[in-house]
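sanity check this record:
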Amino acid sequence: MPYISRDPNGQITAIFRDASPEANQFIPQNAPELLSFIGAPANTELFHSLDSDLIRVIEDVIDALIHKKLLLLTDLPAEAQTKILARRNLRQNLPQSSSILAPRDGLIWGE
């Protein structure tokens, strides 16, 4: 997936899951012309970068809630606990500036 059909000018006219006589050209899912045809942002790297930034924000919010004892790590499903702990261990090796809620002089923002 996906297979496409084109008009006489070479423009994509339809997308199909399977090859067929009218759609026998396979195209990568991240091809710019396919993304444009379906109305997706052409710059998917920017989108993934924003996703990555949002994940970091969510991690910092979870850490702040745990620090303030508003949330216990054990309140979360086991899979979520495992993923949070794995990312926390990886992030400990990053500079403090990688956290938007990084401690300042031993304090969390807002305390």
User: Anything to note?
Assistant: The CA atoms of residues 65 and 71 lie 5 Å apart. Strands lie at 3-6, 12-16, 25-26. Confidence is low (pLDDT under 50) at residues 97-111. The longest helix spans residues 44-67.
